[in-house]
Specification:
The protein has 126 residues and is α/β, with parallel strands linked by helices. The chain has helices at 14-24, 34-41, 55-64, 77-89, and strands at residues 3-7, 28-31, 70-73, 93-108, 111-125.
Length: 126
Amino acid sequence: MPNLHLFFSHRLTDAQKEDALKSLGIEEFVYLPPDLQQLFSNVPPHLESLDEYVRPFVEYLLEVARPGDYILLQGDFGLVYRLVEISKSLGLIPVYATTRRVALERQEGKKNIKLSAFEHVRFRRY
């Protein structure tokens, strides 16, 4: 059974966990170690190239991931793009979570308040 390696900046919701277990057949959810999570969540915007920045993530994947594992990638567009390409070359299956926006409106005095909630729908392959 495959693992799901989590490259994004928050924790999975219960709905996402349930869907991953059911639709992807996940055995284990693998969060990034804290040092890599910090790097993934804080990509410096001033970098012209991500060639060096991506290296620790590649080394990590080479160490812990197996061909056929899934990798959930959501974050900085440039880093995600690079990691999608690399993941595919390693035989991993890159995915992202799709959501549905549910808008709620209420009136407070003379103000209309609009809140948007996002509900998990499914995982989609890149």
